[in-house]
Amino acid sequence: MFFATAAFFIVLGGLFSTPMAQAQETSGLANNAGLDNLAGQVYLPETDIRVFIFRLINIALSFLGIILLGLIIYGGWLWMTSEGDPGKIEKAKAIFKNAAIGLVIILSSFGIVNFILKALWGGEGGGGTRPGTAYDVGVGALGDGIIESHYPARGQIDVPRNTMIIITFKEVLDPKTVCGAANCDGKTVLKTENISIFSTANGAESREDADDAKVAAKIISAKVESKDNKTFVFRPDKFLGNQNQEQWYGVRLFGGKLKKSNGDAVKLGVADYYQWKFQVSTRLDLTPPQVSSIFPQPDNEADVKIIAGNAKQASWTITVIKTPNYFTPSTLTV
After folding, report:
1. Which of 32, 78, 91, 299 is the most exposed place for a label (fewest CB within 10 A)?
2. Membrane-spanning regions, if any (predicted)?
């Protein structure tokens, strides 16, 4: 059971180490201690400490898996060579039992810790990003969070320049926190301090996005329309990108500023924001919508007018032509 216990504490140690590293990186304070100038001379690694810890955990679990396999082989060999010796058979059974318990502990520990790590990296709801992602984009808000869907999709490319941006929430929002009015009728203006559409250098999530989302020169103004205050359509005032080269854009939602219809603040994960990016192409989408199917099917036959006469009362006569035979019970005389 030593290897199983060791696995649990190794993975548990990674759990507590990772949030500390994350808190240190997102504190906003310089923590390089002037080492940037020395990195090239002493070959300092650039790997995120969280990624390093996760890799270390995987290596340790792989090593413990090899030990488990060795124990199972040893137990099988011990049983086969026991020659009916009850002591050796019981020892082999104990090895199999301990190996099975150790396997359950290892898999359970890894699964639980991996789930918690994803939740901490990606916000609430277990959405999360995989280990190795350099930046928390709050994707836990999607899925079982408050955001049901959005268009364009995360990382989508070749998006037309004249695209609209659509976000659907699972709950009704206060439209005043989205468009500044009681009714987002398509003429109201997006509140960019709450939802920011901005141009960015590339599709990778980076810490500079938080600043780009607040730079007036990069923010895109748009009109907002919503029929139910759950699905919001954002129409940029100008075509996105240009005709010469593709351009990446980001959309960032600030949870602390968006409100539900009941006045409660919208929660978007641990970092309390949600962000995704998409790439705009150099073309405009000028193809009109095409109808693929309709229901019910059209009736192109000429209608036929039927003239019906007035209804008449039915009448008839019943004639009895024969007297019916009645049932007569038989009698028995003794």
Report:
1. 299
2. 52-79, 100-121
